[in-house]
Write a structure and sequence with these properties.
The chain is α/β, with parallel strands linked by helices. The strands form three sheets. The chain has a six-stranded mixed beta sheet with strand order 9-6-10-13-12-11.
């Protein structure tokens, strides 16, 4: 099978590097174009300050970085742009016919932009058709993934929607890599916890309800629940841990909640995607898990780990959820979204080989 060429916006940054690492030897996609701002016109190997483990793939070192306003040839564009740069450039690329899978926050809450987490809200992909109609885009599209802290919250809560989640209190302990590179100054984070992460509390409170919502015709009915979030930064390199207290109208037993997580599965067409974990969530019975250092690479960094389910005297139930913020919470989710688009026929004539029959 011939691979589909893809481009990466913001290729020299931390998330851009994660895109490159995860796309190396991908069975469906091949990196053909790298885009940057200050690095434009230069050889990628000469300008990148590689901050991930191992070395950058050798086959991308000689690619010359293109300016942000370049005309691109690749159908699929992965965006690791900062919000300010993404606001205008991402819709421009979609209008030109590109499929933009973005990690940026600029357009997440737009009514016709799917905030996609395939194991949770696969039906939201239909917003692409609404988006094309609304904006006059014949073949292009803009698909977002959530804030890196929202992702494990939503994945942990999705199996519990059946019990009617009426209130949720969320307190995050976010890794420093979530702030990009060079991130938080060492004198601010070492021997310290910073009880504020700019913008993330609102994202946790609003993105969660959009992602857990249901598609009704050409719009999303947001999930009805009262949300409250506190975001903190902790001296951990990778892996966001969130402590949640929730109220469930159906008042299920602890055993019923554990069974909901244990039995939660995804559509067969999603389960066989190259980047999909074997299971979307796992419950760890140890009293002191999940832990970022020990559990962030579960499912090659694409699984959400849950633990410490117990009674909450205020809301009823409380537990912890954790996932790798730059893999599942960022680049990995964008790649999985693109894979899902491929099997649903949204990537032009590109038809990947999969192990199960795909239905639309």
């Amino acid at each position: 099978m011939q691979k589909l060429n893809v481009a990466i916006l913001g290729a020299t940054g931390a998330v851009g590097q994660r895109f490159i690492q995860l796309l190396d030897n991908h069975p469906w996609f091949a990196i053909a174009e790298l885009v940057g701002k200050s690095s434009a016109g230069k050889r990628y190997g000469d300008v990148v300050n590689w901050i991930l483990d191992d070395n950058p793939p050798t086959d991308i070192l000689d690619i010359v970085v293109k300016p942000l306003d370049s005309e691109l040839e690749s159908l699929v564009v992965f965006s690791a742009l900062p919000k300010e740069a993404a606001v205008d450039r991402e819709p421009q690329l979609a209008a030109a016919g590109h499929i933009v899978c973005t990690n940026a926050s600029a357009h997440r809450m737009a009514d016709d932009v799917p905030l996609l987490l395939p194991e949770v809200n696969p039906e939201h992909i239909a917003l692409i058709d609404v988006q094309r109609k609304n904006r006059g885009w014949a073949t292009g599209a803009l698909i977002a993934n959530s804030n890196c802290t929202t992702m494990p919250i939503v994945m942990a809560l999705a199996p519990l929607r059946q019990f009617n989640i009426t209130k949720m209190l969320m307190v995050s302990e976010q890794a420093i890599s979530g702030a990009g590179y060079p991130g938080v100054a060492s004198l601010d984070i070492m021997d310290n916890i910073v009880p504020y992460v700019s913008g993330d509390e609102n994202k946790m409170e609003t993105e969660t309800l959009k992602m857990l919502g249901t598609l009704q015709g050409d719009r999303i009915d947001y999930y009805e629940s009262v949300t409250s979030a506190t975001a903190t930064r902790v001296p951990v390199i990778d892996g966001h841990l969130i402590n949640l207290s929730i109220e469930l109208a159906e008042k299920p037993s602890m055993e019923a909640i554990l069974q909901a997580w244990e039995s939660y599965d995804t559509l067969p067409e999603i389960a066989v995607l190259p980047s999909a974990p074997q299971r979307p969530v796992q419950y760890l019975p140890q009293i002191n898990r999940p832990q970022p250092r020990r559990d962030r690479m579960a499912g090659k960094g694409m699984m959400t780990s849950i633990g410490r389910l117990r009674e909450c005297p205020i809301l009823g139930y409380k537990f912890a959820a954790m996932a790798h913020n730059t893999i599942r919470g960022a680049a990995g989710c964008s790649i999985l979204n693109a894979e899902f688009l491929a099997v649903r026929g949204y990537l032009g004539t590109f038809r990947p080989q999969v192990a199960v029959s795909i239905t639309s």
